[in-house]
Amino acid sequence: MSVLAAIGVLALLILVxxxxxxxxARLQGIRVSRFSLGFGPVLWRYQGSETEYxxxxxxxxxxxxxxxxxxxxxxSRHDPDLMRNRPVGDRAIVISAGVVANLLFAYLxxxxxxxxxxxxxxxxxxxxxxxxIASETSRVARQxxxxxxxxxxxxxxxxxxxxxxxxxxxxxxxxTSPGRPVRLMVQRQTQTLDLTVVPxxxxxxxxxxGVQLSSNVQVRQARAANPVQALVLGAEEFQRLWDTTVQxxxxxxxxxxxxxxxxxxxxxxVAMGADIAxxxxxxxxxxxxxxxxxxxxxxxxxxxxxxxxxxxxLFLEALRGRPLPSRVQEGVMQTGLVLLLGLGLFLIIRDxxxxxGL
Length: 358
Prior knowledge:
Layout (H helix, E strand, L loop, with lengths): L1 H26 L6 E14 L4 E14 L22 H28 L3 E11 L9 H6 L6 E5 L2 E2 L5 H11 L6 E7 L2 E7 L2 E2 L5 E2 L5 E9 L4 H28 L1 H4 L6 H14 L1 H20 L6 H14 L5 H31 L2
Antiparallel strand pairs: 1-2, 3-4, 3-10, 4-5, 4-6, 6-7, 8-9
């Protein structure tokens, strides 16, 4: 059931994205020939007065089609309600609407989470926790008397604050002190101990003591007391998820070789969602918001077959005063689609192999 819940979340986010395109077109009177959730064999189809609606076997995708691009639909080339006959601004609204829909949906479900389950909020306490001592490199830590579960409150007389930067501060001191005694104030249950550790030098000349570190933090569920507070908490969490996502894409762009292995495909995303669904429904809501923001950002990238790539075509059309030749647009879009499908297939195979332990 948890796997189905995760697949359902992805399908819902794709539905929201495509619905954004569809509604933006219909509200402007632009004709839409097909609205499909999924790819592959048709499971359900309904022919409306103008638009065919369908549900297909593979729910991890979808599309909105216009009569302009469908040779099976007889239309007049001069029909003012065709997508291609609308001004650049109208078409830009339709193309951008999927991204806007995903961002708006992410915010609204975070508001729902704030009003019901609550937003997970970290309460940082002073110090750095040592949850585990690495067995293969623990000699230095064990000689100093450090144990798993200790909380380092101060290093060389300098307190470690109640913030996420405390771990970085501690690591920096250890790295810059190879072979030099470092004084630690450690809390162990109800005791406060003074220990001295001498970091061992690595081949790179940095100090290490062979322990794992984590922030001294407790997570509480911040639930809104009223609708206004729910809007505020939802906005704050949306900003946090947005910043985290943008930073992740920035790291991928700056150091692609080192971070490319962290890119997750549909299989890995479903697996993560299933794990979260087994834990609690509130976490699944936050997972949905995060994936919705990721989906929005990915679609803004100026790549063929993505919304961002189509916006680039519109921008060039606005500069030139006329569209690029159809052959050029079709060639670029088809190439981009093949590359994206190839990347998707590669990620599915890789993530499946990882899950089954190959």
